Model the fold of this input.
Amino acid sequence: MKVCLRSLLLGLALMGSVSGMARVQFDQWFENRTLRMDYVLSGDSVEQRISLDELYSLPYWAGRRNNLDSLHLEGNGQILMHDAASGQLIYCLSFSTLFQEWQHTEEAQRSYKSFECTHLLPFPRKKVNVTVRLQNSRREVTCERSFPVDPEDIQIRRLDKVPAQPHKYIVKSGTAEKCIDIAILAEGYQESEMDSFYADAQKMSDHLFAHEPFKSMKRCFNVVAVASPSIDTGVSTPRNKDWRRTALGAQFDTFYSDRYLTTLRMKRVQDMLSGIPYEHIVILVNTDTYGGGGIYNQYMIAAMHHPSSLPVCVHEFGHSFAGLADEYAYGDEVTPYYHRDVEPWEKNITTLVHFEQKWKDMVPAGTPIPTPENKNVKTETERIGVFEGAGYLKKGVYRPVQDCRMRVNNVPAFCPVCQRALKDLVNYYVK
Ligand SMILES: [Zn+2]
Done:
């Protein structure tokens, strides 16, 4: 087993305090404002560079106020904020990026590109160092860079007085301080189509909160729909040479994959949300062509007018909100995303290298590994086992149930393991 010692130690250090005493008090270290950090990841299939772009000050801090110095998930990268004077870790978050996905493409072997990234951090009272760290699919640290941040720096662009886009609350359970704040943005809806967008946002939200554990934890969430108008209706489809002027610059054919609908314009996305407290971003696209994507702690995006749109939204939200892995498999070939000798950090798949960190406690005694599928039923969502085939691989990667929302579109629920992962994450944010 080849696991990077450094990343293991990092994991232990960062995750150790999840259930422990709160070591970092929010009010001691932070103001009730947000430090928006825009940075650029660039490189090719081998090289990675991290460069700071711009810092912003936004009113309010809508993120978590507890567990500030602990990570719930490892992600494919982390941001760590240390107090400059003492070196104490005072905030951290984890994420995944489109840049790291792109590095596995054929294009990355012949090109060198840059990708916009943005993260929201609580606004520090004192000088800090902010470190961006990237990891590969073997969970080894591959690139790391620190940036000093002085909260008094006049170059921090203050967006405190920028008026918010028109918006409507769909779910309002409490203050931004107490709740998890989801912002839903419109992409490819013209000004005259905003009633249709608000109706779509309501539909998406209702569908999400019909799923457990969101249904029974709805009191922990606020959902706001933000009217971000586009000049053109619809969305860009490069394979048809069809480029449209849309608010967030979204497009199909990301990395030359037809159904992969994303936006690479993170600054535009974040600009649209100035003045509105938000933590998690949902982008609804005004098209009936199938597609979507979800990137952990960045955003989820989905076509809104395809018959499968609502299930796709929930699946992609599983990726973007909770870093859940895909529970489906393509084939037996080696993929760059998971390795059979490395335990993935995602909660809902395992290579059995460290199954005790996953759902081993939920598997009934005597369950065979791999667990045989029940071919006599259309879908089976409750029987917990160790089913082979997940994380794009047919062999060596396992999923918790035969059929889950993270595997197929026609299943109306997350499996019990995904539900537990989601519930634990919600508690991490709000408790
Ligand atoms: Zn699942």
